[in-house]
Amino acid sequence: MALSAPIGIALAPRPAAADAVDDVIDRARLLQRLGIDRVWFGQRFDVDALVLAAVVGSAVPGLHVGTSVVPINPRHPLVVASQAQTAHAASHRRFTLGLGLGAPGLEEPAFGIRTERPIRRLREYLTVLRSVLTTGTVDFTGETVTAVPPMSAAVAGGDDPDIVVAAMGPQAVTAAGELADGIVPFLAGPRTLGDEIVPRLAAAARTADRPRPRVITGVAVVVTDRPDRARARAVEQMAFYDRIPSYRAVLAREGVATAAELAVIGTAAEVEAQLRRYVAAGATELLITQTDLGGPEDELATWRFLGALGGIPA
Fold it and tell me: What residue stretches are annotated with the Luciferase-like domain (predicted)?
């Protein structure tokens, strides 16, 4: 049976790991043995997601790696282009660069930066990246970004990785459709995805004469016969998103009060049924997050199930 939506897993070092990078490599190898062929790394304030993607992509041949996501504000696009090409070459062209606008509540106190025109910055950032990643050079002076490298910025074997954006708001989705290869929405339920995000993204891509965009939908998933424990931890760990205006707007459109309500937690049959709703709404890939909500045994059970499933049929 043809599968229309591949499944990837979000990975992060375990808190008790003796070596963060070794830990992630070991778990990535396990996922590959279980039938999962793609993993994603989020950017926090500890391990560098782009470096980790390059290391894992090199250490685990055949595995697709990606970032979900690297905030654009603290890093110049020339720096990100260099890192992205390196990761693409290290993984033998199996890397996807996932970017995000970031969270002002975290970035302003941590970095002392403030972005007044985030959509303008996103558009200019993507313009610079697209030029460097496809041609190896750029000459751009915009309102928020200047990129005029004095020499080639090309990396042999690392050209033209896909760029995807953590976009859900109308302006960000439109920018991604016109200038990127897709989006990585998280906490956008099937209703919001199918009614608003996917149609807007597709229209923007058509207007820009770009190929059909990837829709890599992030969903928190736990396969378990003890759902209450996982749901309680989801409420605790996902409460952060309830306080961010952009996520609150999405939750309101989906008709739920908290982010935890969008976690897919239950038996294998229940999980598969819910994931099918995302694919029916337009998801082209699924990025499964927070599989540890139910503890180590449930996490392994979730990985085994998703690996055996292989993907979600349309």
Answer: 16-284
Q: List phi, psi (to 5°) of 296.
A: -60, -40
CA angle, 158 as apex, 154 and 162 as ends, to 5°?
A: 110
pTM score of the predicted model: 0.96
Residue with the two structure tokens 């349309």: 314
CA dihedral 176, 63, 31, 6 (to 10 degrees): 40
Instruction: Give the Cα separation of 97 and 261 in Å (integer).
Output: 28
Torsion angle of the four alpha carbons 32, 22, 219, 34, in this order, in degrees rounded to the nearest 10: 20
pLDDT (tens digit per residue) in 164-193: 999 999 999 999 999 999 999 999 999 999
Backbone φ, ψ for residue 301 (5° rounding): -65, -40
Give the pairing type, strands 311-312 and 285-289.
Answer: unpaired
Strands 311-312 and 5-10: antiparallel
Burial of 190 (0-12, 13-18, 19+ CB in 10 A): buried
